[in-house]
Amino acid sequence: MAAISGGKTYHHGDLRNALICAAVGLATEGGPERVVLREAARRVGVSPTAAYRHFDGRGELLRTVGDRARRMLADSMERAAAREPGADDPVLAAERRLAALCRGYVGFAVEQPGLYRAAFCPPRPAGTGGGTDGGTGAAVPERQPHEPEVRAFALLADALDALARSDAPQRPVRPAAGAAAWSAVHGLSLLLLEGPLRRLPAQRRNAVVESTLAMVVTGTRAP
Question: Topology of 67-219 in CATH?
């Protein structure tokens, strides 16, 4: 969702959503560190006092931005899966969907690093001041597909379930394969953003991504 750029004033009635859009724009530009309630208020042309009527502080705003960013991540995964050509072989079709979902995950991280970091910024409990260290640790949640914080995990887990059904009982999916697949794509994303892989030229980076996705697909199957 596009943010309201600096200099434009706020005219319509949904101030809360306007502040969220501005904060998403801040995260897009500079990650969770840029998300500040006063700056979001300035961008939509209202006073900080007006903004504080909708958010009790930076922590609440940042948590809301994180929810929005995780939805956008899952949307990226679903778009990548929708672009993947089908196959007559149900096993191949299931493998392609799993790889495409993983590709959409990594693609979002590479193309939207600020939002990706905001998506996994550790939340602070209410009343602790709402600060953040900007980290990107992703805990493995229980599967609740309708919750924004776990939709990406649910997409991977559902794809693995479909893969298991397509080939059962010859090569069942390993236990905890969903968590393993998520760990792989999340770790790869961090290495591409902040680790030694960030300096790879595009062609080599794509080769690393595809090699990792191939290992995810094959490695989640029991021998």
Answer: Tetracycline Repressor; domain 2 (1.10.357)
The rounded distance, in Å, linking the Cα atoms of 156 and 104 is: 11
**pLDDT bracket for residue 132 (50, 70, 90):** very low
Q: How far is Cα 127 from Cα 218, in angstroms, rounded to an integer?
A: 45
Hey, where are the domains in the chain?
67-219
Other Cβ atoms closer than 10 A to 15: 16
**221 SS3 class:** strand
Judge whether residue 136 has pLDDT over 60. Answer: no
d(CA 51, CA 17): 11
pLDDT one-digit tens code per residue, 149-173: 579 999 999 999 888 888 756 666 7
Per-residue pLDDT, 218? 85
- CA 146 to chain centroid: 15
Q: What mean pLDDT is predicted for residues 60-83?
A: 95
